[in-house]
Amino acid sequence: MFLEVKDISSSNFDEIPPPCISCLYWKDTSFVENVPKDIDRRILKKKWLQELFQKFGFVGKILYLEDKPIGCAFYGPFEAFPSIKSYGSTKISQKEVFLACLYIVAKEHRGKGFGRFLLNSVIEDLRKRGFKAIVTFARRGSSDNPSGPLSFYLSEGFRVVDEPTKDFPLVRKDL
Predict the structure, then answer these.
(1) Count of domains forming the chain
(2) Whole-prediction pTM value?
(3) How many C-beta neighbours within 10 Å does residue 96 have?
(4) What is the CATH number of the domain that holds 24?
(5) Pairing between strand 60-65 and 97-104?
(6) Per residue in 142-168, is it b (16+ CB within 10 Å) or e — as a string?
């Protein structure tokens, strides 16, 4: 079994697995309803990621199993993800990186360590860039969510730092 993680770039953008390639949730939650066509959301996503890459130098990673994309992670500074504000948490600082998504798309690939492999790659990247912490909203009680399950993050050394909503506590890991 050959696993590989690659940084998202303009050369592999189209390899981001669905539904992630057209998800604009963290950009603006209204896009889900107001931009109904998947192809239009893909165009907006590509433009958004290009803007983030130009501004911050990174946007995320794609996980490949035997050269087939099976998951992805999107992360960046707080200001890169405007929809964070809708969660109401004030526990995110500008010195932390927000992990918007860590998602293994197919259920048959979950629970096999692929998410852990991808998360470790993200953490390694952030340490090299000099960041001190990573935060995310983890899903309580469900693994079928792009945020990832709370139990996974707790097992990886994250701790709950805020609970602005019942289902999505904010978790943090010091790097």
Answers:
(1) 1
(2) 0.91
(3) 20
(4) 3.40.630.30
(5) unpaired
(6) ebebbbbbbebbeeeebeeebeeeeeb
